[in-house]
């Protein structure tokens, strides 16, 4: 596996690969790889000739009181894992190279960045869309792979790619979970033993919502109420940031669950300062 840290070199290498007619896939990440990241890389492997994983803890997407400084980092482990799933190039630029003094250009997807995570983390998605745009320009991919775990992010990236005419196919990989249902996340290592034991309640509440809707519940408020009840009972150490039943395209909160409709049920729960996200996509039965 090639490791590239220099921005110019990455760009030069990507143009060279394109001239050779190679199909490039990119997997943007912040490192501390787990099976979720590796699944995205394997998917990229199947869809392209050359897989570039980017590893960049992007300060722009962290709020002033968030965990940028203590975000988990595991350089050696990441190299080994990325190599083992067939990543060809690991691109890990320096912060100063990505945002040199005087940097002042941002990419914003307006409407979709407002609700859910956007309401709680102002500026977060501006950071994400800006860095992803830069990473797209630096790696020149034909395909980009993101995870459904960050459902709102996936939707925003798709919107941005369409709106700004990036000639890139965006693929979304399903959520990869621990055996007990907890969605894998680099941040899971922050959880205390007690918090970790309660964390699978997030997925249980989502499964309950799926089941309730399948059994005929058509009132989103009732679904949300039921989920909150499960979370309060089974994850008392967690603070619920939101539980939402939304339109899968606009993220508008739904007032009724019409048959045939695609629905995103999403939640965020905070254990201390560790925020966990999870979601399910479903179609309301006829
Ligand atoms: P991160 O390093 O947390 O920014 O994640 C990099 C990419 O991996 C993003 O597209 C995430 O949505 C995706 N990802 C992270 N965890 C998971 C997971 N458990 N299942 C699927 N995709 C994931």
Task: Kindly describe this structure.
By secondary structure, the protein is of the alpha/beta class. It has two domains: 2-173, Rossmann fold, CATH 3.40.50; 187-283, Pantoate--beta-alanine Ligase, Chain: A,domain 2. The chain is 38% helix and 20% strand. The chain has helices at residues 7-19, 35-47, 75-84, 95-98, 117-120, 124-139, 151-163, 193-198, 201-214, 220-234; strands at residues 2-4, 24-29, 50-55, 89-91, 143-147, 169-173, 238-247, 262-271, 274-283. The longest helix has 16 residues, at 124-139. Adenosine monophosphate binds at residues 29-30, 36-37, 40, 146-147, 149-150, 173, 175-176, 183-186.
Kindly list the characteristics that best describe this protein.
globular, 6-stranded parallel β-sheet, 286 residues, Rossmann fold, alpha/beta, 2 domains, 20% strand, 10 helices, 3-stranded antiparallel β-sheet
Largest sheet: 6 strands, parallel
Strands, total number:
9
Count of helical stretches: 10
Overall helicity: 25-40%
What is the string of SSEs from the N terminus onward? EHEHEHEHHHEHEHHHEEE
Mean pLDDT: 98
Give unreliable regions as ranges. Answer: none
Q: What gyration radius follows from the Cα positions, in whole Å?
A: 19 Å
